[in-house]
Amino acid sequence: MNRLFSLLLISLFTLLICTRTLSKPTTDEETLKNLEMEAAKHSGFGDSDVAFQKTILGAHCVSVDPLGHIYDQTPADYEKMMVATRTGNPDAKATSEISDIKVRISGDTATVTYSGVYTASGFKDPNSNVPGAHFVTVDTWQKQSGKWKIIAGAAVSTGPIPAEAYKTPPPAGSN
Fold it and tell me: 3-class secondary structure for 27-61?
């Protein structure tokens, strides 16, 4: 009887410890890292990519791409740009792989830096087809109504960019 009681007690404690460990709330740092990794998975132009990106964009997001194009977009502006890109380049595909994510939080604002490789193909403009561009990014996030929203970002190429690529206009539908 004592042995059965001991086993039951040990099982109960194990269950409590596992439940408590598994239900541990995610820290803001972990949340931001996860959001950046999920955003990298949604770097394409499909409906699910656009839908996810719209969930993390602030009311306005200011960004700079590696070619120096500056954007000040609402989620609706972003969707318009992605739809125009997809419509003009139906075979276009893009992927991003990111690593070395670092988060610094100050109150309700955070900066996140990371490095990555961007690959794009299927564009009608050959300058938009990128075989594997290395870059670094800094994103600024703000906690709004309990959710982290991206409000600014800049990506910088860490490899050479062909001079003719700088002549490429911003994507259709951007402002």
Answer: CHHHHHHHHHHHHHHCCCCCHHHHHHHHHHEEEEE
Burial 61-82 (b: 16+ CB within 10 A, else e): bebbbbeeeebebebebbbbbb
pLDDT, tens digit, 9 for 90 and up, residues 122-172: 999 998 999 999 999 999 999 999 999 999 999 999 999 989 888 888 886
What pTM does this model have? Answer: 0.82
* Domain total of the chain: 1
Amino acid at 49: D
**Structure-block tokens of residue 122:** 């299927």
**Cβ neighbours, 10 Å, residue 104:** 11
Residue 19's pLDDT is what? 42
Q: Residue 52 maps to which CATH number? A: 3.10.450.50
Please report the sign of the dihedral spanned by the C-alpha atoms of residue 159, residue 160, residue 162, residue 163: positive
Contact of 54 with 79, CB cutoff 8 Å: yes
Residue 4: inside a domain, yes or no? Answer: no
Residue 172 lies in a domain: no
